């Protein structure tokens, strides 16, 4: 684990306070370009209107504004950037230092390549350090704030202020129309006109925090295709009767290899795009689309924890998943080796290899009296069959816990509709989509924020050219 901090603080913390006032005066003063901002109800002309002041929206607004464009940033929320605030358990896993295109799911896995290479994790880290934000690396390249995700919100807010971004928040956008030379928005704050429009309203995860499908609706309004959205990075749930024997295991956690089984009853389109992700991938001949070595958590309704969240992004309704509950071990070999002359119960020996509660409950499900059998009395073939079930536990979730529990939305604006260097809609000049609204979904571990930053920067730089 590394621990670093950057030089000094870049200003007083603003995050957590109410959102900035409309037309907040930019830091640094200076005259406002004619036509910018203006009181409620008046038309206002901007170079760029950004809808959605989350991760991607603030980044895009800041970069475009710092390059001399007149930018207005619009959000319907009462509080600024709620998803950043709650992310990473309140510490914001703001990037992953090992980011490559392989950690993203999309109909076109190459789409994200250009933006990620033009603005990578080290570029964002440089910004974080410039603002004096202390950070640390957790496992597998995940970078978190030392104290609070509010620091990231403060930083983006300060960057927007430096860029003299005008704010409309809280402000609802009623309609979006083509206007001469750009777009006309009708909002709760009056009309807004802009030459370019960036949709940065994110995905539908956590609607209780104001998440909407606004970007997808606008995409459809302009005739752009949308890849069917679904909850992702989300717990999987099971039929209550099927799950009843395991409900008692609620709270048990262990490291597993979890893979999806594409085509086992489901559509499999997104899964077919997936890449083998962890140890154990491909171990059954026909390679599973993805496999992750991560922690698994049993809950009352089903399974959760990082392993399930990761595989949920590949899972399609009706498909099975397969779990190696003892990765790196050979349960059959270990039990058979312990067998000769053993006076111990099978349950006791198994508990030496596995969590005790899991061993007891698992054996209680087995046919015959395995729970109380002495290991020496269990036939070798039964030991092997038991081990096979432990290493290849196959089960079919009945669904996901839905958008209310999901961390992200999978799917979104079809990447075929967008230019990968600018995020501009190929068929609608001046219309851009960035962040989670685009059909690019990252794994758990800081990748989704990295996509938000990178897609926003690509868009803003292209706009300023
Ligand atoms: C609990 C949780 C934890 C997470 N932790 C992490 C993490 O640690 N690391 C990581 O990489 N990712 C994490 N994510 C995912 C990450 O938060 C998102 O992928 C990221 O915020 C997407 O950025 P965005 O700018 O596209 O959308 P958002 O950040 O969601 O911003 C969208 C903005 O648009 C606004 N908006 C929505 N609809 C409208 C509308 N109709 N009109 C006006 N404004 C609108 C919203 O109010 C919001 O401010 C987490 C997500 C959740 C839910």
Question: Any overview of this molecule?
Answer:
The protein is α+β, with helices and mostly antiparallel strands. The chain has 2 domains: 3-231 and 409-464, FAD/NAD(P)-binding domain (3-Layer(bba) Sandwich), CATH 3.50.50; 235-401, Beta Barrel (Elongation Factor Tu (Ef-tu), domain 3), CATH 2.40.30. The chain is 28% helix and 22% strand. Strands 2, 3, 8, 9, 10, 11 and 21 form a 7-stranded mixed beta sheet that branches. The chain has a 7-stranded antiparallel beta sheet with strand order 18-17-14-15-16-13-19. Strands 1-6-7-4 form a 4-stranded antiparallel beta sheet. Mean pLDDT is 87; it is low at 1-18, 24-44 and 265-288. The structure holds flavin-adenine dinucleotide. Flavin-adenine dinucleotide binds at residues 51-57, 75-77, 81, 83, 86-88, 92-93, 173, 200-202, 205-206, 210-212, 214, 407-408, 435-437, 446-449, 452.
Top keywords for this entry?
465 residues, alpha+beta, FAD/NAD(P)-binding domain, Elongation Factor Tu (Ef-tu), domain 3, 2 domains, 7-stranded mixed β-sheet, 7-stranded antiparallel β-sheet, 14 helices, disordered N terminus, binds flavin-adenine dinucleotide
């Amino acid at each position: 684990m590394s621990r670093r901090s950057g030089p000094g603080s870049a200003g007083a913390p603003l995050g957590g306070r109410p959102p900035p006032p409309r037309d907040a005066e930019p830091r640094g003063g200076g005259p406002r370009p004619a036509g910018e901002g203006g009181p409620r109800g008046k038309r206002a002309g901007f170079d760029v209107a950004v809808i959605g002041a989350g991760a991607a929206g603030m980044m895009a607004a800041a970069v475009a504004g710092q390059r001399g464009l007149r930018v207005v940033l619009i959000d319907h929320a009462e509080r600024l950037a709620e998803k950043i605030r709650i992310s990473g358990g309140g510490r914001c896993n703001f990037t992953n230092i090992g980011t490559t295109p392989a950690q993203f799911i999309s109909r076109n896995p190459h789409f994200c390549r250009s933006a990620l290479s033009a603005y990578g994790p080290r570029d964002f880290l440089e910004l974080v350090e410039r603002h004096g934000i202390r950070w640390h690396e957790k496992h597998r390249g995940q970078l978190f704030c030392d104290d609070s995700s509010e620091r990231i919100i403060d930083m983006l807010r300060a960057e927007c202020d430096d860029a003299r971004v005008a704010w409309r928040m809280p402000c609802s956008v009623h309609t979006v129309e083509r206007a001469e030379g750009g777009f006309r928005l009708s909002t709760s704050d009056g009309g807004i006109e802009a030459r370019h429009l960036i949709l940065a309203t994110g995905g539908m995860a956590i609607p209780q925090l104001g998440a909407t499908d606004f970007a997808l609706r606008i995409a459809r309004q302009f005739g752009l295709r949308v890849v069917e959205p679904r909850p992702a990075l989300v717990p999987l749930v099971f039929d209550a009767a099927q799950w009843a024997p395991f409900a008692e295991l609620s709270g048990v956690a262990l490291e597993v290899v979890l893979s999806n089984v594409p085509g086992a009853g489901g559509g499999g389109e997104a899964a077919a795009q997936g890449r083998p992700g962890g140890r154990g991938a491909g171990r059954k001949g026909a390679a599973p689309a993805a496999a992750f070595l991560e922690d698994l958590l049993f809950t009352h309704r089903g399974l959760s924890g990082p392993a399930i969240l990761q595989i949920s992004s590949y899972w399609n309704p009706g498909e099975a998943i397969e779990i190696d509950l003892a990765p790196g071990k050979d349960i059959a070999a270990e039990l058979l080796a312990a067998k000769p002359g053993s006076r111990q119960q099978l349950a006791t020996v198994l508990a030496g290899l596995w969590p005790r509660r899991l061993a007891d409950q698992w054996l209680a499900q087995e046919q015959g009296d395995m729970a109380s059998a002495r290991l020496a009395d269990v036939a070798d073939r039964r030991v092997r069959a038991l081990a096979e079930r432990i290493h290849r536990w196959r089960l079919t979730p009945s669904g996901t816990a839905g958008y209310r529990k999901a961390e992200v939305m999978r799917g979104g604006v079809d990447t075929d509709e967008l230019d990968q260097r600018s995020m501009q809609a190929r068929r609608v000049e001046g219309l851009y989509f960035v962040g989670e609204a685009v059909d690019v979904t990252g794994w758990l571990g800081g990748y989704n924020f990295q996509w938000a930053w990178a897609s926003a920067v690509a868009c803003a730089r292209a706009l300023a050219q």
